[in-house]
Design a protein that fits this description.
Blueprint (H helix, E strand, L loop, with lengths): L2 H9 L12 E2 L1 H12 L4 H4 L4 E4 L11 E5 L3 E5 L4 E6 L8 E5 L4 H7 L16 H6 L3 E7 L1 H9 L1 H10 L1 H24 L6 E5 L12 H21 L4 E4 L8 H7 L3 E3 L9 H8 L4 E2 L12 H16 L11 E2 L5 H15 L4 E3 L5 E3 L24 H5 L2
Parallel strand pairs: 1-12, 2-7, 7-8, 8-9, 9-10, 10-11
Antiparallel strand pairs: 3-4, 4-5, 5-6, 13-14
Helix pairs in contact: 6-7, 6-8, 7-8, 8-9, 9-10, 12-13
């Protein structure tokens, strides 16, 4: 299988030739690894990445941007959503300091809503699509979901307040952004970027629970998700969903809305792929769940994390756990080599992988199959009808 075939099979609940791979590195981590011996190695190719991504969609209010202050450390500006924000320079994973929001309530929304429609300036293609196709990668079109489109405009507090006090407005906001994303994605396809799947980023959890109750989700956000995710499924584009935090209670609802994979399943929020596999079986692809804290531990810590979770996630009919770890500094290259070699000994591999002495080398493509020698032709469509019973649980 090539990468595209491998990920598509995984998202259909079939058995691929090996577990798919996608890793996300902070810039500081890449720089650290380069200093530790990698040099100018192309990490995407070296890690055998199966997914190529592109972020061509713009869903801001398209308001004029203006820099208010800039130093060597930060920049303060009014952004395209009418928000005064402070961005720290040279820091990956940094959340902006939100200083002032022009829109805070339903009245403001109705004043600006008419500008949230498709226009050509809402597409900015990166030019990476052709190269990803040549590498036979699974190409994912990426953007934030309706909730993540909305809350930065108003701020979290104002967004939550509208959800409680102006629910009709909140529902309209989410649906408006769902309609906009559908229109933009359709035009992206018309322009020749026939991507394989849609990857939405929609953080819905704190470290202990969801940002709002499952019942609130059902009433306000689920209709937008159902329309948005359903559009892509209907045109043969499976939906992957990134949602940080403890979102376990929403997974049945997200499945019903149309997702094919959920990621990252943060382990530090008390979520465990072993338990999730037992609950959801083959209905959704579990993407991630390797505890990043273990990567700062010993070789034994890393091996225990991998060998406890991966064999369970791999077994039975067609569900695989694709590893995704946002490697943060100070993730040492040698520590990561331990993780990767342990992973590939179970999950199968091809091409280039880490070796313990901090260089790369090619290993035999014939990886252990652990009994998985045939493909599973049982489609998820046959089992998704059971999702309804989870909605009440």
């Amino acid at each position: 299988m090539n990468s595209r075939e491998r990920i598509l099979a995984t998202l259909e609940g079939e058995i691929p030739d090996r577990v798919g791979r996608f890793e996300s590195l902070w810039t500081e981590t890449s720089d650290k690894w380069s200093e530790e011996g990698l040099g100018d190695t192309d990490l995407s190719s070296a890690l055998g990445q199966d997914i190529g991504i592109d972020w061509p969609i713009i869903t801001t209010l398209l308001l004029p941007e203006k820099i208010v202050e800039e130093t060597d450390e930060y920049v303060v500006k009014w952004d395209g959503n009418g928000v005064l924000r402070k961005d720290i320079k040279g820091s990956s994973g940094h959340t902006p300091h939100w200083l002032e929001h022009s829109l805070t309530c339903g009245r403001d929304w109705h004043e600006y809503k008419q500008g949230i429609v498709f226009s050509p300036e809402r597409i900015k293609l990166s030019g990476t699509y052709e190269g990803q196709r040549e590498k036979e990668l699974f190409v994912a079109l990426c953007h934030v979901g309706p909730y993540e489109c909305a809350w930065p405009i108003f701020g979290q507090v104002s967004m939550f307040t509208m959800m409680m006090e102006e629910p009709d407005v909140a529902r309209d906001i989410f649906m408006t952004f769902a309609d906009l994303e559908i229109a933009i994605a359709q035009e992206v396809i018309n322009l020749g970027m026939d991507f394989d799947g849609m990857w939405f980023f929609e953080d819905l959890g704190y470290n202990k629970s969801t940002l709002f109750s499952p019942e609130c989700y059902d009433d306000l956000l689920f209709p937008a998700h159902k329309k948005l995710f359903g559009f892509f499924r209907d045109i043969g584009k499976p939906v992957l969903l990134h949602s940080c935090g403890k979102i376990e209670s929403l997974i049945p609802r997200l499945i019903d809305a149309g997702i094919s994979a959920i990621q990252p399943l943060e382990a530090k929020c008390g979520q465990d792929v072993v338990e999730l596999k037992e609950r959801f079986g083959n209905i959704v692809t579990l993407f991630g769940n390797i505890d990043v804290r273990k990567l700062s531990g010993s070789r034994k810590d890393i091996e225990e994390e991998i060998t406890r979770k991966l064999p369970v996630a791999m077994k039975e009919v067609g569900i695989y756990s694709i590893p995704t770890i946002r490697f943060r500094p100070p993730s040492a290259l040698r520590t990561t080599a331990t993780h990767w070699n342990c992973w590939t000994s179970w999950a199968g591999t091809s091409g280039e992988v880490f070796r313990g002495d901090n260089i790369f080398h090619a290993i035999n493509d014939s990886a252990p199959q652990h009994g998985h020698t045939t493909r599973c032709h049982r489609r998820r469509a046959e089992t998704r009808d059971s999702c309804g019973q989870w909605m009440a649980s």
